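#struct-help
A.M.: can someone run this one for me? Single chain, 166 residues.
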Amino acid sequence: MDKKRLLITVDSTLADGAFLPRGTYVWLIKTLPDGLLQVEHKDRLHVIAADQACAVPIPPPSEDELKRKDPCFGLGLEAFDEIYKDDEWLFSIYRCKAHGAWFLEDVQTGIGWYSRFIFLDEAPGVGPEDYRKTWRRYNQMSDDELNLREIKNPFPPGANGRTERE
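D.P.: on it. Structure tokens below:
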């Protein structure tokens, strides 16, 4: 039987005393009665509530879904002002010229590298230390966790310090 991979979606302190932080990947061993799951993490078995995890991979939101958050998604960097660029940690903070929404361009490295353009939950503060704090928060999130965030937490108009311009 193939094991199914799951992503823990909330910080979870389990009955056996183990702690699984949000964003941890586990393997589904079996479904138990009463909405519980038996999962494996680092060769240890744990029981969690089914609503504390979701199957992966989580597909990214469509371009239309992203454009509902900010119509400038997909227009290219000319639609944004670069507020800060950090060459040491490979990220930039942008603000949409038309709507004022905040974004993070985060470069992920490993065997290869790619960048992620992330709609921020809130304005990133002011200055390099605040920008690095914002970058750390999002950089540690897996692509699955970011995709889940986009699906479960669509931002209403006015979120993220966004202003509507006429």
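A.M.: thanks! The chain has two domains: 4-55, 63-161.
D.P.: also worth noting: Residues 84 and 102 are 11 Å apart (CA to CA).
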